[in-house]
Amino acid sequence: MSDVVPPEVRPKPAVPAKPPNVAPSPSNSFPPQGPGIGGGGSGISAPPPSGIPVPIGSHGPGHGGSHSVGHGVGHGVGHGGGPAAAHSGGHGHGGSHSSSGGSTLLGYIGIDTIIEQMRKKTMKTGFDFNIMVVGHSGLGKSTLVNTLFKSQVSRKSTGWARDEKIPKTIEIKSVSHVIEEGGVKMKLTVVDTPGFGDQINNDNCWEPISKFINEQYEKFLKEEVNITRKKRIPDTRVHCCLYFISPTGHSLRQLDIEFMKRLSHSVNIIPVIAKADTLTVEERQEFKQRVRKELEMSGIEFYPQKEFDEDMEDKSDNDKIRVSGSPLSYAMPFAVVGSDKEYQVNGKRVLGRKTAWGIVEVENPNHCEFAQLRDFLIRSHLQDLKEVTHNIHYETYRAKRLNENGGLHPIPSSDTQESNL
Question: Residue spans with biased composition (Pro residues) (predicted)?
């Protein structure tokens, strides 16, 4: 029987002693960290003082894993022996989402659909625009409005044919017409005035027009102060007044100055020179500059007023219209020609006026400034005209009326629903 040595008494193999204070190779236990993590400077974290290797992915020095992109490395090293200290330091300063501290938009919310929601709402309700034309008889007021909107919107009556002569206006009359373009509906109301200044005695001839403008403010105000008012108050207020200046080529009449001076604080006045084809190009530019100078000397501020500009962009755009500028600039007052008849010019059908020496094309910028007036009135400033009417002119009238009555008083009875104004 052979001698068997039990396992517990077998001699253990000799293990070579590990040199003291020797750190393991960085290539084995400390793979390089990403550059710039934790503010360490070199991008490679140093081992802990104890020299004990830490497996990859554990919460060791540098702490640059999935917990922190902030200060974890710099504070995780050197605060106490071993991985526990490094782990504590990393969690104390690391963040889980953002190193900047601000919230980050992680997905699509849909805020940009607000514009589309507003568009759908306004498309359902539609738009209102009320324009008044004032000037001598025979200056083409009604024809110009028809040309602006390319529709028979002025002095519409039953049985009136297109080729018939437009009758002379004998009273202030509002004519409404619904225009639709591209799915957008607009209720356009044209306020035609009597032959302004046609009488021999023209004293206070602006009073009927001023009275009509204020009556529309009064109607809107009474609807506002009712206890059970309508969800959408009918807007009959005059948003724009086109004042037609006779193409004399000399200067403004005193009646023109008095009218614009008295009504410029209650309505948006846009002066236009009518029938500009009766003037040469040189006469037209000289007349425009003379009119602007007389308006400035008389203290008349026509639309757009400088104090109503909301920002520098509006000021820059409106200054191009207000300032005199060079003779080639299209500044106010616009020299226009209106016509609702079409002619054949170079193989195209165009709106124009036929003369002995040719056809004046209404929409040709080289012939007149009708295109500039239409762009200004409809394409760029229509909404602003409505806002200025409501926020400036109507609010001025409203404050005056309420001050006269000692403030806004409640309506005595809901049965009558009448305003005390």
Answer: 13-23
